[in-house]
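Morning. Coffee machine broken again, so started the prediction first thing and wrote up yesterday's gels while waiting. Chain of 276 residues, entered below exactly as on the submission form.
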Amino acid sequence: MFSVSIVCIVYGLLATTDYADYNESKNFTSNVVNRENAKPFEYKFFAQIANGRSLCAGSILNRNYVLTTAWCVYNISNLAVVTGARFELDKNIAGQDDDNVQKRKVRRVIIHPEYKHSLDVADTPLSGDVAILKLEKPLRFDNNVGDPVTIPNFKLEKKAKRAGNCVAMGFGMIQEKTFTIPKRLQKISVNVRSTSYCSRQHASMFGTRWNAKLLCTFQQGRPIICFGDDAVPLVCYLNRQPILLGTMVFSPFPCSDGHFAWTRMKSFRSWIRQYA
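Came back before lunch.
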């Protein structure tokens, strides 16, 4: 079973892939990840974490802080956050997309104390995979960047899940067999499973690594997230406000296996508010 460590490593490889063979059509061959192009600036809180190449996704907390996974930024230097991007990864990272792109250096990386880094897939912990990035210069909120995510408490998480208007977005693979990744940000609706379902289904998969600080989604035979989607946000909307329920920490391969695990933001709300 593959875990987040594999996902992150592959993301680094995918980010350098040649896009020449990218097919803009939705009529892909088999093993397609069922997503569609996001509208330009549809998710103004979405950020890319980079150090010369794309590493993973991030979510804007406010003008000075961005949330991502600990694995993505652990022991990585020269980090930057790119926001306001619409299209090709390489252009976004270089700040060449257009004037909408804002690129900020990272001044400080704050990793949750529960996180224990490991290169061993079997020992990679799932809990505590959270990091906060303090930016060297505040972001400028405008028509393309802003709408910071809200970290929910228990009641707000429950209300957001019941509303059902949940979505994930990222630059991960859209074709498993050819490892094709998109030029445009992708989005897909997501069904968040109940805590009891997650406990029953995922405890057998992850053993002692599964705990209440995680969320799960499951859509067998209908892959939604895939390699290259490390740290993508799982957001539910309430009154047009993006509520960040989780960030992706586990994606299976093949992605059509359908089981996905997410760090449960509710469980880290107090810690996040302490710093950001």
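Helices lie at 4-14, 70-73, 89-94, 154-163, 195-206, 269-275. Going to sketch it on the whiteboard this afternoon.
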